[in-house]
Amino acid sequence: MARRTPARVKKTAPTKAQSGKSAAKKAATTKAAIKQTAKKKAALKKPAPKKPAPKKPAPTVAARSKPAPKPPALKTPVGVKPAAPPRPSSTRAVDVPKPGTVPQSAGASPYDTPYIGAPLGAHVSTAGGVANGPPRAVDIGATAIQLFTKQASQWKEKVFTAAEVQTFRTALAGTPVGFTNAHDSYLINLASPNAALRAKSIESFEYELRRSNLLGLNAVVSHPGNFMDDRASGIARNADAITEVLERVDGPTRLLMELTAGQGTVIGSTFEEMAELLGRIPAALQSRVGVCFDTAHVYAAGYDLACDFDGVMSRFADVLGFERLGLWHLNDSKEPLGSKKDRHELIGLGRIGEAAFRRIMTDLRFADVPKVLETPKGDDMVTNDRRMLRLLRRFAYGR
Ligand SMILES: [Zn+2]
Ligand SMILES: [Zn+2]
């Protein structure tokens, strides 16, 4: 569906975005805004946060990711058609746009709660094509998105045409989204002792990385595999497979290995094991790998984010180091501490509770780390995510 989008969302100075006092004037500058002025008035009247904003800088994802993305390697042997170089804008401003600068669905703007910080968003559907992701981000008020570049539950690979790649980039450029990541297929098991399955996994993982590079995504999130036979051998197989693919495929997309809940023989449910896995990747590739911290997984794995947030974080800092933290998956957990079961719940309604999320949203150590929800969508794909993102933006202001 065609949408009216601004050519580019202007970077907003923190003080203006917080005060909102000039928003009404600004809104009157676009036709769309004029039409909707009455509707928006209520939203615009919302007072600025009473407390001064936390003294954080206005960070951008640039702080953690590599500089300008290089053009992806186009010697793609797997049938991906070459496309134009990636947009140079993955490091652009991530501030929430002023009211009136973003196309709106019915009701108040999903971006109506002030927020200055790293990109914040959710997993969005790419049903109907990957280019449908960015407008769905706008519908929920997201400045970060995670998406699948293919059917995550199937082996069949998606091969993008140059036109599909360009359409995605154009769609993304018209939004305030400042961080994008793919999540790879659930079938991939780079740690498998079964040679055929591991080879198939390596191929699928390579496709995923190539697709993400072509789209110009900031990161691919991947689950460590299941060792099946012997833990140490599994970790070695997993690290070797990652190394093999990263050496073959260069590009702007960073690989983020996700901490797991620890069910069965899965690798990566302790900080130590994740450190061992990443430590086996050669030094020359270290800048291209990092960690995705899923709060529900880590809690289910036995780290008590609810009662000992500081202890868990200092453990993470000691064992893995915050410089490796590339993304938060913000999910409450339906399952209890140490259950090793991975079931996500809406923020504040699960076993973790809202206090840990308030900490994450206000801790300056995480101020430039993008944050993405994977909480239950509900019936309409929009309402819950909008509500969750508003809630997290309020947390960021201590409200
Ligand atoms: Zn995941
Ligand atoms: Zn996750």
Could you characterize what this model shows?
The protein is an alpha/beta fold and 399 residues long. 34% of the residues lie in helices and 10% in strands. It has a single domain (53-396), classed as TIM Barrel (Alpha-Beta Barrel). It has helices at 14-19, 23-27, 31-45, 133-140, 162-173, 195-215, 231-248, 271-279, 295-300, 309-319, 354-362, 383-396; strands spanning 120-123, 144-147, 179-183, 219-222, 254-258, 289-294, 325-330, 332-333, 344-345, 371-373. The chain has an 8-stranded parallel barrel. It has a two-stranded antiparallel ribbon with strand order 8-9. Strand 3, helix 6 (195-215) and strand 4 form a beta-alpha-beta unit. Helix 6 packs across helix 7 and helix 7 (231-248) crosses helix 8. The radius of gyration is 21 Å and the shape is globular. It starts with 13 loop residues before the first helix and ends with a helix. Bound molecules: zinc ion (2 copies). One zinc ion binds at residues 258, 294, 329, 374.
